[in-house]
Write a structure and sequence with these properties.
alpha+beta; about 80 residues
Length: about 80
């Protein structure tokens, strides 16, 4: 398997955490020293290991935001409604 580099340019936020301490996060990441892109994936507590994820451009993130704003989403039982 080819070696690759990554740099977390901006840690935007944690979406969830599992029992083993891995967190699903939204980050801005530069893969192989390329232009940073937005990324959603699971990370080990020290960010040395990662799970599969999805990487999207700023334009795709904007489109996703527009789609989410159009949706009526019920809040989880323990969260106030938006």
């Amino acid at each position: 398997m080819a070696e690759f580099k990554y740099e977390i340019v901006d840690m935007i936020g944690v979406l969830s955490e599992n029992a083993k301490g891995w967190t699903k996060e939204l980050n801005l990441i530069s893969w192989n020293e390329r232009e940073p892109k937005y990324d959603i994936r699971e990370w080990s507590p020290d960010h040395s290991k990662m799970g599969k994820g999805v990487t999207i451009t700023k334009e795709e993130l904007y489109s996703l935001k527009e789609l989410l704003m159009e949706m009526e989403i019920e809040a989880p039982d323990d969260e106030p409604a938006l």
